[in-house]
Amino acid sequence: MAVNTKRILVLGAYGFIGAEVVRALQAAGFAVAGLGRCAEQAARVLPGAPFARGDLRHLLQPEDWMPLLQGVDAVVNCAGVLQDMTPGELEAVHHTAVTALAAACADRGIKVVQVSAAGAAPHAATEFMRSKARGDAALRASGAAAWILKPGLVIGQGAFGGTRLLRMLAAVPLVQPVALAKAPVQCIGMADLAAAVAAALNGVLPPGTYDLVEDQPHSLEEVLAETRSWLGFTSARMVLRLPGWLLRPVAAGADALGRLGWRSPLRSTAIAEIQSGVRGDPEPCRAVTGRGMATLPSIYRSLPAGREQRLDAQMALVMPFAVAVLSLFWLASGLIGLWQLEAAANVLMAEGWSIFPAKTSVVFWSFADIALGLAVLWRPWAARACLGMAAVSLVYLMSASVAAPQLWADPLGPLVKVLPGILLALMTHQLLEER
Length: 435
Known about the structure:
- By secondary structure, the chain is of the alpha/beta class.
- It folds into 2 domains: 7-305, Rossmann fold (3-Layer(aba) Sandwich), CATH 3.40.50; 319-431, no CATH class.
- It is built from 17 helices and 13 strands.
- The strands form 4 sheets. Strands 3-2-1-4-5-6-11 form a 7-stranded parallel sheet, sandwiched between helices.
- Helix 6 packs across helix 8, helix 14 crosses helix 15 (355-375) and helix 16 runs antiparallel to helix 17.
- The two termini are 28 Å apart.
């Protein structure tokens, strides 16, 4: 591997695109450091890579960037958010922070490679695209040496956002559900995107704005069929083409879950982007490089697929249902305990408990069940809530084994049935790990 003296800072380094860009640049010999919000995730995704903690929502002035740019020759911005999780997040991350970064880089002679999105334009249908376009425009106006790369739907070995949604839908057994089946989509392989970033940093690609897309669009239905075939799932017996009007309540539900911290790929912005079509013009990039981007079939042929990809797709499909079942089970358990307070207390009183501690215990654990059933719905707490469910279930088993051991032999199996609940909570805890 050739040694490259250029020092590169990658923003959003442990994300879907950022992680692959970091690995590709490291393989090309660049000295790469990452920047993002969570050092723990970075260490898990990119073990051993230098990393600085930073949040673009708070890097809104050129001087905020100065400590992070010490000794840096170029910045690659792979950071982005699909939809506001907090008010103003899109504007801060895609425009204000990029404007400040561009000014700081122009002042220091630092190159900037911006990973934008195909379709980003001032009058685009979504604020995601409009805010991306404002950031792109600020970067072009800054005077910094700038490359604005606008990929289509990015296909890689990993999966996140739209790519994960494709795999989830492809994992549905027997039938292939699809809405907006005729929506046009142009894809790009992660390898081509990372190669374009490296070409910009090496001076092979001149500064400018480039759509990174394959030559011809596919319909969304065709993209799903290619994805299903690549994963190795059996062909669907029928295609279930869902009506467009159904997307509005689906998006509204996904947006509501977004307020609870769940970044569903079915939120209104994602659906609006599919409705608009994922398209770009491949000619400017071809005119400079002399070649086009790999087509979707060739992208998938270049990516190995096996049991782990199929299992990931299936588990991504199952995870929302697992969370819903856990929430309903624990809420029902707590509410039934309060509703049947006398009957539940009588079980303990039959074992020698007095009425006050028996009722107090039932009320306490009923509210604990309700709290866990609600906590698993709040995304930042969901994984810990699953561990809490497993722990509380073990407390129930041990306490019942001491206080009422005959329940193990009960024909309805009230204690035996706790065991699969513990297993579901522990499995869901693992499914909730995003990267």
